[in-house]
Amino acid sequence: MIKIEHLTKKYGERYAINDLSFEVKRGEIVGFLGPNGAGKTTTMSILTGYLSSTSGRAEIDGLDILEHPFAAKKKIGYLPEQPPLYLDMTVYEYLSFIYDLKKCTLNRDEHIGEIAKVVKIDNCLNRIIRNLSKGYRQRVGIAGALVSNPEVVIFDEPTNGLDPKQIIDIRNLIKELGKDHTVILSTHILSEVKMICDRIIIINEGRIVADRRTDDIEGALVGNRRIMLRAEGPIATVSNSIRKINGVNSVTVAVDYGDGTASYLVESDNAVDVRKPIFNLLAQNAWPILELEPVGATLESIFISVIGSN
Amino acid sequence: MSAIYKREMRYFFTSAVGYVFVAIFFAVSAAIFMTLTLQQGDKADFSSYFSYIIILCIVVVPLLTMKLVSEERKMKTDQLLLTAPVTLTGIVMAKFLAAYTLFGGSFLVASSFYYIPLAMYGSPDSATYFGSVIAVLLLGAAFIAVGEFISSLTENQFLAAFGTIAVLVFFIFSSAINSYINVEFIRRIFSAVCVMTRYTYFSYGLFDWASLVYFISLTGVFLFLTVRVFEKRRWS
Fold first, then answer.
1. CA-based, 20 to 30 A from A5: which of A196, A286, B69, B220?
2. Chain A neighbors of B3, CB-CB under 8 A
3. Between A and B, how many residue pairs show a Cβ–Cβ distance under 8 A?
4. Cα–Cα distances in Å, from B103 out to B143, B177, B215?
């Protein structure tokens, strides 16, 4: 559905993106991840026809954005980092304006009503955008991107500046959209990507440094699996016993609470899940497990290690 | 394109811009008409009226054009327009036409309104009157194109307004400055670009092809430059 080939954009002598290539299949939700200034927004801007690339191609459904801008742009809904809102218009007028701009042929009122319902702004269609809160404005921006039912939706940091409740709402909305749209979203909130996306592309200094399915990105990029365990029992004996479990590489006592309990950091081979053997061992010895939690292999650490190693 | 035109027209009247423009235009043009035509007594002569209307344009045209493009950049709404299936020319033309509709509309209403009493009680020279009306309409188009171009260069509406005023002053008074310049080459350029020289033909009731082409080209060039500014920003 989306194809980017050797895309390069230079600002003066500086490369904003450098020889970027990737493809996104129809119906995929792709998270575009990277630190500030990595080139996420530039890539999205080129993909939507807002900027032109220095070299390379960007295609939407087989249509080159530069050669067939009209047809390609009709297939895209775009929410830039700052939603492009006309503050003097009411929500309905704004959506209606985009409806005209995109030369949409669906039934105007029905279509706008539907979108408003999906993004939950149907109660404020007649309010002036200037008077809306940040969260609502963001939703209006998302609604704008959905007008004319584009096949591809591109969101640049869609949950930026929203409160936790709104973030959850927007995430659910994007997941819902992913069922019948191809979605690209950029963010630097890693848990967000993990929750929403099928696939993660990490980009740094204009280059792709990782491109994986969300399910296997953690395993693929981090050598060891780590578990934080809090249990009651003789500390030295417990840690020695755990160390003997097949696959465990190291056990470190992280905290000794002084009440007979301690926290242990257990590192094991990535291929082995040692949680069950640990449970069995501790159960047999009547050392109660108080907490057991996988740690370390978070997207944050992957992100930092990937970005750092580049 | 029509969507953008409609939005601009709507904006003029949901913000104060349209009302302020119309109010200033009508108030000042009425004052000009009263003092320079009606109170002159014996002649039904519009020539001074139109000359001062052109000078009024220096103030009122920037009012219409200062936000035309700069505001879109400032509020980042240009992203919406540029990622929509609309051509750059379409965007620039829609904005131009919206501002021109307001300008042309106000000017025509005011000028026809003042013509009626003179035609009823006197006999104004219709050739010079209509020649001047056409000339101001052509000149207004060129001025609005200049204003739109300058508005596309900056995000700051006040900078756009002052820039436009400066350029319009140059276009209107370049012939007048000429007497202070010794270099023949520059004098020639100045008198060639001066809109007042071109305007004079029309104000005598003469139809001059060269001047018509001049006004249309001036408008075209500045609209074209505005498109290029959009284009350049995309490629740079």
1. A196
2. 97, 100-101
3. 64
4. 10, 28, 16
Chain B residues with beta carbon closer than 8 angstroms to that of A101:
3-4, 80-81, 84-86
The Cα–Cα gap between B9 and B21 comes to 13
Contact B68, B11 (CB under 8 A): no
- Helices (H) and strands (E) counted in chain A, each on its own, are 11, 14
Copy the structure tokens of residue B224. Answer: 């074209």
Provide ipTM, 2 decimals: 0.90
Nearest to B149 by CA among B99, B196, B194: B99
A225 and chain B in contact, CB less than 8 A: no
pLDDT tens digits, residue range B163-173?
999 999 999 98
Beta strands A76-79; A152-156: pairing state: parallel
Alpha carbon distance B147, B169 (integer Å): 12
Set of chain B residues whose Cβ sits within 8 Å of the Cβ of A156: none
Q: Under a CB-based contact definition with an 8 Å cutoff, are residues A48 and B81 in contact?
A: no
Contacts of B195 (CB under 8 A, 6+ apart): B54, B139, B142, B171, B172, B215, B218
Judged by a CB distance cut-off of 8 A, whether residue A55 touches chain B is: no
The residue with tokens 């592309």 is: A201
Q: What is the pTM of this model?
A: 0.84
In B, minimum Cα distance to A72 occurs at: B85
Q: In chain B, positions 23-42, which contact chain A (CB-CB < 8 Å)?
A: none
- Gap from B143 CA to chain A (nearest CA, Å): 26
Query: Which residue is it, tokens 């959506």?
Result: A95
Backbone dihedral angles phi then psi of residue B114, each to the nearest 5 degrees: -75, -25
Which helix (H) or strand (E) segment is A9 a member of? strand A2-11
Contacts of A103 (CB under 8 A, 6+ apart): A74, A148, B85
Residue among A70, A84, A103 minimizing CB distance to B80: A84
Among B61, B22, B39, B47, smallest CA distance to B141 is for B61
Buried-state track A98-123, b at ≥16 Cβ within 10 A, e below 16: bbbbbebeeeeeebbeebbebbebee
Q: What is the mean pLDDT of residues B205-228?
A: 92
At A211-231, the pLDDT tens digits run 888 877 665 555 567 788 899
pLDDT tens digits along B145-191: 999 999 999 999 999 999 999 999 999 988 888 778 888 888 888 88
**Consecutive H or E run containing A143:** helix A134-146
- pLDDT digits over A109-127, tens only? 999 999 999 888 999 999 9
CA dihedral B172, B175, B181, B187 (to 10 degrees): 110
> Which residues are CB-neighbours of A263 under 8 A, at least 6 positions away?
A228, A229, A230, A253, A254, A255, A257, A291
How far apart CA A10 and CA B139 sit, in angstroms, is 41
